[in-house]
Write a structure and sequence with these properties.
By secondary structure, this protein is α+β, with helices and mostly antiparallel strands. The chain is built from 1 helix and 3 strands. It has one domain: Double Stranded RNA Binding Domain (2-Layer Sandwich), CATH 3.30.160. Strand 2 and strand 3 form a beta hairpin.
Length: 77
């Protein structure tokens, strides 16, 4: 068994939290709390990776961690 590391984004939405893995297109889920979204995305990644392997493809490996930051941008208007 090989351990893979994936960057995961968890963000609030209208009904709770949306979680997705940017390096695995189509791999996303939702949860009522951050903890639930985190647990759900772990399961979604496992299932997504299993399907990738089943299709005979390689699981994407991130070269390095994604950097996420918040910027303050002045906008005239």
């Amino acid at each position: 068994m090989t351990n893979y590391q994936f960057t995961v984004v968890i963000e609030p939405d209208e009904e709770g939290f949306h979680a997705y893995a940017p390096s695995l297109p189509g791999c996303h889920t939702f949860g009522g709390t951050v903890e639930e979204a985190r647990a759900n995305i772990l399961e979604a990644i496992e299932l997504h990776a299993e399907e990738i392997l089943k299709d005979g493809e390689a699981i994407p490996v991130e070269a390095e961690s994604l950097f996420i930051t918040r910027l303050s941008v002045p906008i005239a208007g």
